[in-house]
User: Which sequence fits this backbone?
């Protein structure tokens, strides 16, 4: 954590910051972050008051000679991609009436711009023209993709009836080629196996949960050359968990072609999952009002080098282990 | 290659493009790319004249309904990062008198802006404050890093005496804490083992070569939590090679935290390695004048989750296999 300590000192050398801003700025998982700032507080390096973190006099001495610069590109929010404006317009107006997130399924949606940038990236890769399998779609990515008119087929499997109905209703109204199906990923995907060129998902981040999500997605793919996109945070998935996930991806026959940091932002727009904060461990710990869109994830792209081989096949019951582990601090209890 | 075919059709649906532009736009390696466009030409889908590729009438029918958009952020060239302007100024004036690339070492340098953006990214990660080991530095990254005054130590190992002398001379003149040492990576790094927080390298891209480069770099790292940055193209390293490299990284104990596509651009500024084009297979194949900065690489960042374990230790002779394999089409013969 020496390096993350440097990140925090570097940032705070330029003033005091909201704890939410600091969480986003640094690279550790939430439990590691708390452990670190509690140590720094105990050493008398930083102080935390009303949700603001700043350096003490002792801390200022330690941070002497450090600098802070924000080098994130302000034009694209550090993503490297522009918005697909024609698609954004319709998508935004449709998403305005989306069903609110449901705590029991750990829902929460990516920003409008985030979904549209993901689409730009998928377009650039040539992946938009294929058949697309989406596992869980509270982000309504299927609708953004459908609005382009380019994919040969879009199928959404989703556990929440409200979202299934919403997507199918929009598809009918706008004449989009999308089929949304009620499905619990603890069941296998039946006749959808080996039918798709591309999958897209934002999985739960427990190791058993993500293994299940990725296995079902991988099983949906046609074969060598098929690709997948998924989001993964560093906040609820430590680097140790990332390491295990990367082994799983390799064993399933996939090369990682991209990992784009902070590509996906979950905005606190008054309706997103932050409304569950009474049930979110991170808010119990911090207690200060959220004042910053700090919950982000990296976008992975993977490509099958071998015949895709799911780790899990057939019925696989997970229950509570699907959503909860000792890193799931932003998942409703 | 179906997906890359879609990428090419999608692009050409908007007009004709220089073959160099098309090589950069698509995702396959150079040998795969040539195989594909030769197939498309034989099918009568595309035509290639004076280095320009366009759709035939038959191709236009196949591409009906396709679209092309360039969504790359123009502000940051798709990298997501701004320039560190204060550093750029001095770095640029120093780099103006760099030794020209040497064919026998497969040299070629990243653009000024590319080096500076790499520095921005390393700064953001908190990695700039540590000790930095650089294996091969015709990019003069050591000088950019040294100009910030932030790293605790910078050591360059480099086979080319001209570059060693250049870096040491600049370091003396500007009072930078950089030490450049003559070293052939076929030898191990002796007392530099286990001394550094960070490594930076742009390795050769043959599998034996990159295994050697990464092994030496990994051996320089202190231990768990240490990190590495390196560039890797898709042009001279196919996805199969990437897959092997990712297994090697995992076996050495590293998680991949970032893969940023097209982060590094090798500019054709009249002095870079493009001057060797008589000896570069890709130019023998294409014959058309280069009119676009098409040679780019992805930036990897990796972090040690376990005690770093190099694949190769001790003296390791490679000879020609260091530089050449059947994908090395942009490496001097």
Assistant:
């Amino acid at each position: 954590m020496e390096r993350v300590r440097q990140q925090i000192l570097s940032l705070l050398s330029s003033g005091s910051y909201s704890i939410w801003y600091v969480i986003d700025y640094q690279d550790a998982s939430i439990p590691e972050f708390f452990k670190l700032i509690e140590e720094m507080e105990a050493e008398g390096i930083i102080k935390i008051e009303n949700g603001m973190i700043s350096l003490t006099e002792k801390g200022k001495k330690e941070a002497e000679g450090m600098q802070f610069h924000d080098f994130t590109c302000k034009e694209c929010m550090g993503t490297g991609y522009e918005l697909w404006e024609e698609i954004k317009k319709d998508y935004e107006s449709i998403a305005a009436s989306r069903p609110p997130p449901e705590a029991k399924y750990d829902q929460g949606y990516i920003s409008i711009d985030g979904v549209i940038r993901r689409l730009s990236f998928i377009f650039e890769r040539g992946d938009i023209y294929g058949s697309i399998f989406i596992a869980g779609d509270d982000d309504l990515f299927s609708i953004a993709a459908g609005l382009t008119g380019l994919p040969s087929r879009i199928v959404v499997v989703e556990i929440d009836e409200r979202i299934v109905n919403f997507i199918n209703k929009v598809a009918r109204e706008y004449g989009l080629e999308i089929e949304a199906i009620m499905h619990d990923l603890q069941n296998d995907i039946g006749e959808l196996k080996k039918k798709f060129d591309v999958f897209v998902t934002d999985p739960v981040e427990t190791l058993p949960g993500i293994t299940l999500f990725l296995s079902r997605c991988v099983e949906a793919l046609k074969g060598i050359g098929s690709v997948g996109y998924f989001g993964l945070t560093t906040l609820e998935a430590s680097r140790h968990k990332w390491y295990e996930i990367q082994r799983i991806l390799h064993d399933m026959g996939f090369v990682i072609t991209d990992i784009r940091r902070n590509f996906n932002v979950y905005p606190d727009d008054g309706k997103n999952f932050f409304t569950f904060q009474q049930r979110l461990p991170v808010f119990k710990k911090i207690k200060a009002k959220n004042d910053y869109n700090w919950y982000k994830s990296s976008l992975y792209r993977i490509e099958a080098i071998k015949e895709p081989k799911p780790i899990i096949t057939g019925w696989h019951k997970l229950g509570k282990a699907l959503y909860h582990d000792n890193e799931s601090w932003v998942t409703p209890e």
Q: What stands out?
A: Chain B is about 35% helix and 15% strand.
